[in-house]
Structure formats: C-alpha cells, structure tokens
Amino acid sequence: xxxxxxILDERNIFNSIFCMESYVFDKGLLDTSKPVYxxxxxxxxxxxxxNDLELYYALADKHNIDLVSKVIKCCHQQLEWxxxxxxxxxxxxxxxxxxxxxxxxxxxxPMHTARLIDLICMVSILNCLMFDDDLDKGVRKLSDLSKxxxxxxxxxxxxxxGQYLFHKWQTKYKEYTDEIIEHCRAYQKNHNYxxxxxxxxxxxxxxxxxxxxxxxxxxxxxxxxxxxxxxxxMAVAKLLYFxxxxxxxxxxxxxxxxxxxxxxxxxxxxxYGIPQGLPQSYFLGNLCMIEVKRLLMQDKTFKGDAYFYVDxxxxxIQSELDEDQFKKRIDVLNDGLKExxxxxxxxxxxxxNYIDEGYLAFQNKLDYTxxxxxxxxSTFTHIDDADNQYxxxxxxxxxxxxxxxxxxxxxxxxxxxxxxxxxxxDKVVSREIGKLVDKQDKAKKEGKNGDVLASKLKLLRRFKxxxxxxxxxxxxxxxxxxNLNDFSERFLEKATxxxxxxxxxxxxxxxxxxxxxxxxxxxxEANDFKEKIIEFEKQLLSKCNVNIQGKQDSLFYAKDxxxxxxxxxMPQDSYVSLIRWARENFNGLKCIxxxxxxxxxxxxxxxxxxxxxxxxxxxxxxxxxxNQGFEEAQFTKFVMKASAEYQRKILNVFYSxxxxxxxxxxxxxxxxxxxxxxxxxxxxxxxxxxxxxNLERFEEFVEHINEKDISDQMGIDIxxxxxxxxxxxxxRNPEWVDSLIVTHRLTKGLWYNxxxxxxxxxxxxxxxxxxxxxxxxxxxxxxxYFALKNVDYYILFLSCYLHDISMVIHPDLGRLxxxxxxxxxxxxxxxxxxxxxxKKFDSIDYTGKKDSRYKDAGNFLIKVFxxxxxxxxxxxxxxxxxxxxxxxxxxxxxxxxxxxPTLLSFVAKVSESHGYDVMDVYGLKSRAQDDTVSLKYLxxxxxxxxxxxxxxxxVNYHLLKQNLRNLSPTxxxxxxxxxxxxxxxxxxxxxxxxxxxxxxxxxxxxxxxxLHLNVKQLTVSKNTKKCNGCKLEESEKKDDCLHIRIVGGLxxxxxxxxxxxxxxxxxxxxxxxxxxxxxxALNDYLYSVNNSLFKTNINFIIYYxxxxxxxxxxxxxxQDFLEE
Length: 1124
Description:
Blueprint: H1 3-8, H2 10-18, E1 36-40, E2 43-49, H3 52-58, H4 65-82, E3 90-102, E4 105-113, H5 116-130, E5 131-134, E6 139-142, H6 169-190, E7 195-199, H7 210-220, H8 229-238, E8 242-244, H9 246-249, H10 253-256, E9 269-270, H11 281-296, E10 304-309, E11 312-317, H12 323-346, H13 357-364, E12 379-382, H14 383-402, H15 412-445, H16 454-479, H17 484-490, H18 498-504, H19 507-519, H20 523-543, H21 556-567, H22 576-586, H23 595-605, H24 622-628, H25 637-642, H26 644-658, H27 679-688, H28 695-703, H29 710-713, H30 719-730, H31 734-750, H32 766-782, H33 790-802, H34 821-843, H35 850-890, H36 901-913, H37 918-922, H38 935-948, H39 957-963, H40 969-979, E13 981-989, E14 1003-1013, E15 1020-1022, E16 1030-1032, E17 1041-1046, E18 1060-1062, H41 1063-1071, H42 1073-1089, E19 1094-1103, H43 1112-1123
Parallel strand pairs: 3-8, 14-19
Antiparallel strand pairs: 1-2, 3-4, 5-6, 7-11, 7-12, 8-9, 10-11, 13-14, 15-18, 16-17, 17-19
C-alpha cells in the first residue's frame, strides 16, 4: 500500500482514535469554545460536537460507529488538505506554563496543543512512521525508523499494543533507574568504569531544528519508501512545521523565540523547535538523541556505558575526571553539536518541496543549537562516591513502582497505610532535597563544585512529585473533602512572594493537585476555586514583572483550570453503544434459562463457521467482525483484529446480555433478574472483565468448559466475590484467576459438611482461605520488604485454599497398626489395660451384678474410643501440613489436574511450610525477589496469615457448649480462645527520624499486631515459665491493654522480667506461642534484610474488655490447660 493511501486509510485513522487517550497529554488544553464541523465541499454539513472536549469524551465510546465514522470523514478531509500543498500546515496553539524563577526572571515552558481532529490526523501520519502496520491482517510491528532507537533508550518507546502509542512511563522509568543503580554498584566493585557522568540538555525541544530532523528521517527511510519519496517528504514535513496565530504568540514572542531574534514586523508565526505537547514530539526527541548519542560516544567526549531517558543521560566512563577535564569534554561535545547543527542548517535538502519558502524564511531567522548544560545539571562523580549517591534511591524507585497504582486498594485501612507510608517517604525525600540544596549552596559559596549533587537532586525531585501527588490523593480519600486552606497556604497566598512560592513549586504536582481538588468539590465551590487559581496566576506574573496585557488567553493554568471545571460534568461511558447493539440484536437470548444453551450461544458467537455438533449458527460472530468489521464498519477491521481490548468489550457485553448482567468492567457483579449466579457464568465473566484478555486463549478456555459438569452449574459461594478483585489485580493471568475460582469451588465442596471424621477442629474451609488471602495481602501492603510477582500471588492464594486440605479427608485408620514409637506405646498400653478389664469382666459374680459388670466394661470401651480418637486427632493436627502437601502432589493428575504440575509442586511446598519449625523457614537461603518464585516470602506470609486467623467467626458458641465435655483439652483450649477473640488487627505506622541520613533507615516500620478480646481477667499468678524474645512495655501501659514488644531473635536469652503474670497474658501468650515465635523470627529477619530506608519494630498488643461473662466451665477448661 502506498504511504498516502495508508495515511488516509480509515482503518489507520480509526486506530489513531482508538489510542487517543494515550497521546492527548493535556486534555485540559483542549478547545472548549469552537464547534467541530463536518464539511461537504467546503460547506458545513453537520456539527458533530459542541467543542473538542465534548468530542474527546464522546469518543471514549469506541463502538459508536455513527460518531466515529463522522470523525474519520473530518480527519480524511483534513489530511487530504494538509498533504495536498506545501502551504497547508496544521495550526497549533501555545500555552505558557510557569517553569522557574531565577535571577528575578520568570521562565515559562511553552506547551503546544491543536484541535482534536488535527491531533488525530498527526497520529495517523505518525503511525506510518513509527509502525509497520499490516492493515489487512491486523498486525502491528515496529517500523524501520523505530528500530533505530537503541536498547539503552527508555523514555517514550513505541508500543506495538494498538491501544497505546508508547510504553507506560512508570515501567520504563523504573527500568532506567534500576539499570543505572545496578551497573553503578557493579562498577564500584570491579572498577571497569571509574566515573559516572550525568548530562542534561538546555531547552531540549526548542533547540531541535525541524529541518535537521526532516533530513535525518527522510534519508534514513529513503530505501524503505524509495517509490514513495514525495509523500514521505510531505508527511514528515507536516509533523515538523506548524502555524501559530499572531494573537496567540505575538504577546509572548520574547518568551517563546530565542533572544535577539528579529521578528518585529512578522505577520506569520511558526513553531520554534519541536512543539512539546504534541503526540509526535517525544518520538522525534528520541530520534534527535540518536545523533546526540553518536557524538557522546567518542573517546574525546564521554564514550562508555550509557543510559538515556529522552534528553537525560547517565554514562559510566573509564577515565577519572577533574573539573577542568570535565568542562573540556563538555566544550568538545557542545562544539561538535554546534558544528552538526550548522551543517544541518546548510546541508542541501528537499524540505522546500514540501514547505513554503515563506515558512522556511521564518525558520531561518531562528537559531537552532543543541547544547548541554556546562554545570549545574551536568555533573560527574567518582564511581566510589556514586554508590553512596544511589544506594537509598534504589529503594525509592522500588517504592515508586510498588505504589504506582492507587486506583485499587483492599479497603479503607489499606488507603490509610499507603497514606502513612507515602507521608513518611515524602518527609525523607524532602529532607534529603533540603540537605542537598544546602550542600550545593555551601559549596558554591566556598568556591567548590556543588554541581556533583545535581543528578541526585533531579531524581529525588521527580520522586517527590510522585509521592506528594499520591499523598494528596489519599488524604482526599481519607477526609472526604480536599483541604483548601492547606493548598492556599502552600501556594495561592505566596503570589506576592515568588521566591517562597518557587521553593516548593513543582509544575506537575501543582497542576494535578488543583485538578484533584476541583474533582472533589461541589460545582459552585469548584468554580470559586477556579477563579482563585486564575487570579493567583495573574498576580504571580505581575509580581515577577511580566506584563500580562494580551497574555491572559495563553496562560496555561488559567486554561487548564477552566477546562478542569467543565470536565467535572462530562459523562464518560465506553459501553453505551455496545449495550444498545446487544439489546438490538440479542435481547431475546436473555430468556434462555439453561446455562448450557447460553454457553452454546457464546461458543457460536466465537465460531468461524457453523459447528457440526451444536446448533450455534448466528448471524454475528467475533471472527466475522474481524473480517467485516464491527457492525460491518470497514474502518474497525484493523483494530478488531489487532486489539484484544476491543474484542474483549464486545464479548463482555454479548455474554453479559445473555445472562442478564449489567455490562461493565466492574467486578461488583449483579444480575437484573432473580436467578442465581452460577460458577460457569462467574468463570466466563471473570475472564471477560480481565484487561489481560487474549481472544485465542479465551476461545480455548470456553471450549474446555463442560456444560454438563454439575460443579459448574452450582450457585456461586458469595465469598469468592470478596477475593475476585484481589485475584485479577494481583495474579492478572486470566487462566490463573480461573484456576483460583475453581479451587475456591473445590474447597467449598470438600468442606461442605465439615471434616469427614474429626469434628473437633475450628473452620479450615474456604472461609478460612478467603481470610488468609486478605490477611496475606494486608501483610504485603504493610510490611515493606515483601514485594511479590504475579506468579508469587498465584501460588500463595492456591496455598491459602489447599494448605489444610488433608484435615477434611478421613484419616487412614490403618496407620494405628503401623510400627512406630507412638503407636506401639498406645497399643501396648491399651492392650494391657484390656487384658485386665477382660479378666475383671470374667471374674465378677454374675448374681445381682449384671448391670455393674456391663457398665464398667462400657466405660472402659469409651475410654479406649477416646484414646484412639485422641490419637487420630493429634495425628491429623500434627501431620496435616505434611499430609496436605502429599495430597496436593498425589492429586496432580486427578482432582487438581487443572493446575500446572510445576507450579503445583511450589503450592505443595508452601502449604507444607505452615507446619515447619520457625528456623526451617527463616533459615532457608534464597535470593527472594530474584528467584523465579519467591518461595521463602510465600512461606513466611502463609504462616503469618494462618496464625492471624484466630477470631470467633471460626467457632460457634452453642456448638461448643453442647460438645465441650467431649472435646480434648487441646481442642477445648483452642475453641474457647477463638470464642473470646473478636478480631486481630494488623496496624502500621511510619515515624521518621529527622536526624538519620536517607541511607541509614530513617523510617521506622512500626508493625502492631492488635488482639481484641471480649473478656477481662487480670488476676495474677506466678510466672513459672517465662517468655523469651519479648517484653511487657511498662511505658505503653494502659487500662485496656497489654503492650508486648518483640525485642530479640529466636536465640535470644532475654527473658520477660515479670515475676508474675495476669491470666490474660499467660492465656494469650500460650495460645499465640507460635505467632510470638514467628514475630520474633520476622523481626530478626527484617532487621537483617530490610532496605536502607526502613527498620522494623514489631509489637503484640492485647486489648481486653468485660463484654461477655465466660461460662465457668469454659474458664475452668482454660485454667486446667494452662496448669498442665
């Protein structure tokens, strides 16, 4: 296909619409005043939207065929026009964003935008440069141009997922910083490189010559488009040169164009450099950096091991440098860049074939020279010092990655935990920034080089943006309303004192915070707040001696805050058209009651041809849509084939309509009728509402569902809905999520009538598993060190279901006859007693003593039964972890054959570990996060979660009361201990040490295990067996609790100094003996491995109250057990 045809192909344009949200970087700059028209031969045929912002939100519904087809026509017309003549350019608008205040001068960052139709058109052209799309087959590959980007470029890398233009910045920025830190530490050890160099380019985007990029791109693609050079030249040119209206730019020209540029009588204004903010700007910036990298990698400059994030670069070189040598190399580099820029300006070019001479004459007035900062933002550090610089930051990057998605949290408690952690991190980072700034200032005053700290400062400020924004977000969630006074004090009230304002001003934080505030205010309050922001911006400019006359309409924050208020009222529902489509075409299918027939319809909808074995013929199918387009709209065909997300939404609505469930992406599933939810329906919906959807794997998944399987026809257990969101969020893989649902169903079924032999155990069923899953997630959220991968979560959650599975199975009674010490002792003892009883039975005079004779024999047989029953109770309890692991391994080819054997072996190991001794787990050697499966983490987590499930929802008072006399002393103790426990709560706090360095554990991760009892018993008895490794804190003594601090390791000789103990303390410390040992080992472990930001402090706090009066016989049972 010719390039021109490909650009104008409606499938390409629709793909540009489909990924729109990924490249409209500042929707606050979208036009809100001018209608969007569809023209016909120069005349307005129809108004398709009141303005660009309205159109943007309307296009969230990518299945609105009528609207999308009109937008495509608009884009087609605009593309034909802009590519038809060298005088025709896209129009852009520039908004000026406050950047910095230095030497009594205010600097601005020019941010560019365009009409939404034009932005879509630009991406339609850009697609053909960045990607090699097969529009017929629905396959996207990187283009020859994108393949030029080196492996060590991390920022704004093209993404072959049609839903996005670029890979997510969080993932790529973490890769960038991780690589830098890892290699820095390696080079410190081996000294292969001796100096770390951090470089930054002055005003990068404005300094890039459009002509230089044009020549670079067209020369690189000259063979790729050998027969299509004309349209290649035109397409590239129209992504580089733009019109700017005189009213927009003339009042700002001294801030926009280079100093001393003669534009006094200009009637035509154009972009200066690459217009930052447009979709193509960051890709073009990367292309420019390829040439910059070539100059950097020379012996006389900075040849070495380099890492680039757009214009930021960190390079490790073999030479040692002093300040003069560093400056000399920077000068050589800048001289080389200047020479290249001059050469590019004078090189022969074909640009005049595609851009009007008048425009080029304007561009020739502008100076384009790429130049690195000579000091300040460009620094060098000896490799041995660099490690000290990056050590703590390695842990900051980890926190950034772990907290990057706060759209989902387990509950309000987790929001609170995240808030506390983020506040602590923000304090530590802020203090470090303050220290570094002071060091810089001091060094400069003493005439020393203070620039060496600049790269660290840059990283820390970027992280501060991240933490501060999420901090504000969670505070608004917690408080319900934003704190306007706090925002005003920090920013708005400093309009008359620019220096104080800029001490804490960060562009992105300021903007995102006021947007957040507006979204959470009532409409009237939001409009009042908007006016304050607008007035503040004007005041600040006036105080900084900026004449605002004629400039108001181009102020960035004034425009953005105005649009933010409008966005509050903007509806956005991506499912509207799909729901209408489903009701128009498949409304009758919801009458089908039989889930097997519903499944047939779904399979039919996914079939390429009519299936021979089922009556599943349908006029619509997902594969027919791939060939003919959704609703036979040809422009959807590429996205229909290429995008799993587009396919997923169609199938989600189709199946939701069949089973009469409200279509959405929500996992709060609800039916519109009174029918029960079946497991087969849940399994399919869970797959369809998972963003990690894949059509081929889903088809295979559906084909393997057996509609006659009784288990799938069962109504779902409501407990599975509690954890479904957790599964999808943490495990992600749809097949694994399905396996967890099936395992929940299996566990529920096996435990349906309780243990098949022993009824003396507390609940170990699917309810226990759900509690363990939520508890383990609480632990990973609260204990900083535990960072799990998707596969780790999968194995952990499976283990939560299966770790006690042997307790439901009837034990092998033949084990009593096996030859081992415990058996032989029991059998010998009972047989000896039995011989005596038989002799006694035979020797009694029958006359008048028949009843006594049989009564004594009966009592003896009851004793034998209890002894044997107690043997099996202890056997199952003691060996259940090992037996559960054995059960899991043996059933890998039968009951558990739906699970992958390799992963199932890990599940068996983790399940078995909850019965290990403490040192068997904490003494394991592991690489933890670097292992394919973080086995040691999982063992620790399941043990902790299991020990924390001790509340009274696992027992029933009436059942206990009726059976108390028949329970063994151990079972009585555990049942009663559960009964008096209302809940156990895991709380964390993160106090910071203001005097500690950032790399010296400045944050204390204070973990409190709070046990809440509904009884109070403070009578005292002598402490005959003292606890090790923990201490009753007198300083924390309160009327309603006992505060026990974990103070030592497992081998600690520190005994509790208390001579006497309260009954409550003895009782709970005996009941939670395993938990206390676990906490001691955990405290020891975290101290040895935790990162340089955190140190851990663990406390066990027993809260008591006199809410219930424990039955006397129950209290006696507890005392008897404690006295054993």
